[in-house]
Write a structure and sequence with these properties.
Low-confidence stretches: 340-367
Shape: elongated
Largest sheet: none
Mean pLDDT: 78
Distance between the termini: 49 Å
CATH architecture of one domain: Up-down Bundle
Radius of gyration: 23 Å
């Protein structure tokens, strides 16, 4: 019988280690796709407004400061939502956060279409950023906890493909509305509000998921953790007791200190922070703010300019979809090559994913 905090911690660590090295089941893969699809919705909302600014400008005036705030407010909200959402998900459970954030997103996405002035639009978009940021941070945690080693890294690497798909869909939908001749005041309202549709689809898909076994173990909910582990990994975690306990969570400072003590995790974290900041800056300058600026100054206001510029951007991000799909295919082989003591060349990686038709869906037969 478990009697001390130290014994509980030892058993939970043992169970967590076993879960993180399991092979996984179909339910875990499905949950992973549901989580990574959030990025498609984020891309839709972030990118659509860049092409709708020229119509918003006609309704609400051409103040560049307010137009810029309307464009970027959702990103500020997402930044704050990442921190708040992660803490809430750890405390109350992943599923509750996923359901609440999607409901918030649906309501706020629709509310954008009823904005009466720029300040209302700015405030709504700022609030909209909170469920977006929260959902992404919690969604990635879910992927890492619900999918097996080797698969979770591949799923996480699909974010670029999801983002590019969302961008292309946003462009084509806005362009399609424009070509129908719809009133321009109604066009931007419909374009922003349509983000609620994919969010509703995602909400319905998430109603059947559960909290991850790892998050339940960390919160001392052992009975439910054993049930979820059996479903996701076909492992009942027999070392855990059949009752719940309160387990004191380690502080954020203790977590960071432990992570920093490991040179591999430290370097990986620093690289991740720098690369994501660089990608965000690059996309912001080219993919988001360039069409925003052209819309504000009126360059894309003519029909021919708007159609041509929209199609060019759709083509560029269609290429991004291809690269976003290829990247996850070669991720396992990049990892294997980097870990190889022989220091194998990167060239065999291309042989791994190129003839997929005769190597199977993973391309492993080529290497």
């Amino acid at each position: 019988m478990v009697t001390t905090e130290a014994e509980l911690r030892a058993l939970s660590d043992q169970a967590a280690h076993r879960i993180m090295n399991q092979q996984g089941t179909a339910s875990g893969r499905r949950a992973g796709w549901l989580m990574i699809s959030t990025i498609l919705i984020e891309a839709w909302d972030l990118y659509a407004i860049a092409f709708l600014l020229i119509f918003i400008k006609k309704d609400f005036g051409s103040d560049p400061v307010l137009l810029g705030l309307a464009s970027g407010a959702v990103q500020l909200g997402a930044l704050l939502g990442c921190f708040i959402g992660g803490w809430v998900a750890d405390k109350f459970g992943r599923k509750k956060v996923f359901i609440v954030t999607m409901i918030m997103f649906i309501v706020l996405a629709l509310a954008q279409g009823f904005s009466g002035n720029l300040w209302e639009l700015i405030i709504i978009r700022f609030l909209l950023g909170f469920p977006l940021g929260s959902d992404i941070s919690s969604g990635y945690a879910y992927i890492m906890e619900a999918m097996p080693r080797g698969k979770r890294e591949v799923m996480g690497n699909r974010w670029q493909a999801m983002f590019a798909i969302g961008e292309v869909l946003a462009i084509l939908v806005v362009l399609g509305l424009y070509l129908t001749g719809i009133d321009h005041e109604l066009l931007w309202r419909v374009g922003l509000a349509l983000g609620a549709l994919p969010a509703l689809t995602l909400l319905l898909g998430r109603l059947t998921i559960s909290d991850t076994a790892l998050s339940l173990i960390q919160r001392g909910k052992f009975r439910q953790a054993k049930q979820v582990s059996q479903k996701m990994f076909s492992d009942s975690l027999e070392m855990l007791p059949d009752e719940d306990f309160h387990i004191k969570r380690p502080s954020t400072t203790a977590f960071l200190k432990d992570m920093w003590a490991d040179p591999i995790r430290r370097r990986a974290s620093i690289f991740g922070w720098i690369s994501n900041a660089a990608q965000g800056g690059e996309w912001g300058a080219f993919g988001f703010y360039l069409p925003s600026i052209l819309g504000v100054v009126g360059v894309a206001s003519a029909t021919t300019h708007f159609v041509g510029y929209s199609l060019i951007n759709a083509l560029i991000y269609s290429l991004a979809i291809v690269s976003g799909l290829v990247g996850p295919l070669i991720t396992p082989h990049v990892s294997a090559t980097a870990a190889s003591p022989s220091g194998a060349s990167v060239w065999p990686l291309f042989r791994c994913w190129w003839p997929l038709s005769r190597c199977g869906s993973t391309g492993r037969g080529c290497c």
